[in-house]
């Protein structure tokens, strides 16, 4: 789901961002989210209402508990694509990923690599599609273990120089 500027700003708030991450694991109630985040139910309820009003989460099921109806919230999409926010020098999502990576340096798993390739726009569009499919596969993994892992993917045009096409006669 491509987020609007308003939705992206809403998710820039850390508690809302954490709620979205937790809901990627499974649907949850306000109480379950409050317990996981160590925050008051009222605060989490406030954030859920804002996310629901923005169309980012929705009630996916309800359950009767005594005289009350318990609501389970879920994400409206598996993947959210963030736009560059106006006036933002670096996307908040990138800053968050960098902070996560720096905190995990020296761990037993993970790597970071940066690659560049000269290619046609159509080929770049195909890579973009494949990367989004990979992100969906990653996010759709059945939860297991105790460690949460992150995945950062990006495809972007650069202004880096490139050698001209290979000339057979000059070799």
Concise synopsis of the structure shown:
The chain has helices at 5-11, 14-25, 30-37, 41-53, 92-104, 121-139, and strands at 57-65, 68-75. By secondary structure, it is mainly alpha-helical.
Mean pLDDT: 86
Order of helical and strand elements: HHHHEEHH
Give helix % range. 40-55%
Rg value = 20 Å
Q: What separation lies between the terminal Cα atoms?
A: 48 Å
CATH topology: Arc Repressor Mutant, subunit A
- Identify the CATH homologous superfamily: Winged helix-like DNA-binding domain superfamily/Winged helix DNA-binding domain
Any idea how many domains? 1
- Low-confidence parts lasting 5 or more residues at pLDDT below 50? none
Q: Report on the biggest sheet.
A: 2 strands, antiparallel
List how many beta strands DSSP finds: 2
The CATH class name reads: Mainly Alpha
Class of secondary structure makeup: mainly alpha
CATH architecture: Orthogonal Bundle
Overall morphology:
elongated
Q: What's the tally of helices?
A: 6
Strand content: 5-15%
Strand line-up across the major sheet:
1-2
Q: Which characteristics define this entry?
A:
6 helices, Arc Repressor Mutant, subunit A, mainly alpha, 171 residues, elongated
Describe the structure.
The chain is mostly helical. The protein has a single domain (5-139), classed as Arc Repressor Mutant, subunit A, CATH 1.10.10.10. It is built from 6 helices and 2 strands. The chain has a two-stranded antiparallel ribbon with strand order 1-2. Helix 3 packs across helix 4. The chain starts with a helix and ends in a 32-residue tail after the last helix. The mean pLDDT is 86.
